[in-house]
Amino acid sequence: MKFIKRTSIAIIFALFVTAATYMIARAGTETGGAAPQSQPTPLPQPTMPIETSVPKTSQQQVACSVCHSKFTDAVQSGSHGHAISDPLFTQMWTDQGKPGACLVCHVTGYDPATGTWQEDGVSCEACHGPVPAAHSSDPVANPVPVDRTSDLCGRCHSGDRFNVADWQSSTHFQRGMTCTVCHDPHSATLKTVQGQEDKGPSALCINCHSEVSMAFPYSKHNQAGVSCVDCHLRHFETGTTDVHAIPDHSFTASIATCSACHADQMHAQPTAATAAQAVVITPQPVSLSTAGEATSNPSPVSPLGFAGLAGLFGLAGGMVLQPWLEKAYRNINKKGNKK
């Protein structure tokens, strides 16, 4: 009998605690409203080139090397400077009958009407022109115009030999990166990380992708001399010999890339059809939300959850506090009877 009485008081106390907790939780949910929805971080957009109105340097070639010898030397010694004199290009151009279409990108200032051009190779004005006439005397007031977006490079590095769609689907492009983040526009080579010039192109990748910096150096790939670009860029598994071929800039490794080295370790030898399918797969655009950013806040917890939990604590507390609760109840009744 005593146990039943004690349990009854505990249950009544638990019901009171549950009801109070439910009302408080419900009131907080209604007044606070739904959790605000956070908007995804907008993708950074490439800065469009600023159009400048500057006088053209008629028949005048600014001696860039006087002030910018470091850059002009890099251009002249690189593939841009040798774009017209490279023996391989000269041979292929001659074999095709020396079409003028090639000179649009292999020389500077090509005029298709006369078949003449201003300078051999890709010179300064190909990317920085037209140079203001007063630039050499007052460079601050007459800056050289330059398009810093990937559109400038795309004027020549595009078409069938460079899949622009792959580049635009890459996370690099979607995060606003341009060609010059990784490529030196003057020497036309990959940039290097200071102090890590001897580590090859992987050091450039790890400079941003630090999450792999601890694992990759100890991997079998790195020990065998395989770099990041061997799997994520080259993709020349088809054996193409086109000198204009540019690595796949979607930066996604394909099964064909793995098979080029690990064909004997695969469960089934890749066929020409499956390899071709792997190569032509177009990566889907990557949203910034995949980098770990939440697109919305979690929904609020139901008041019933709080009430149920409070009820359990209330039942345990009621069993412990039963003697004091019963005594308090009797005192209240005595005071009421006296009145």
Low-confidence spans: 32-62, 286-297
Helix-strand category: mainly alpha
Helix content: 40-55%
Mean of all residue-level pLDDT scores = 74
Main-sheet strand order equals: 1-2
* Biggest β-sheet description: 2 strands, antiparallel
Order of helices and strands: HHHHEEHHHHEEHHHHHH
Number of helices: 14
C-alpha end-to-end distance: 31 Å
- What would the principal axes of the Cα set say about the shape? elongated
Strand content: under 5%
Overall number of strands: 4
Radius of gyration: 36 Å
Keyphrases for this structure?
single chain, 339 residues, mainly alpha, two-stranded antiparallel ribbon, 14 helices
Descriptive overview:
With 339 residues, the protein is mostly helical. The protein has a domain at 2-30 and 303-338. 42% of the residues lie in helices and 2% in strands. It contains 14 helices and four strands. A two-stranded antiparallel ribbon has the order 1-2. Helix 1 (2-32) packs across helix 14. The longest helix is centred in the C-terminal third of the chain and has 36 residues, at 303-338. The protein is elongated and about 120 Å long. It starts with a helix and ends with a helix.
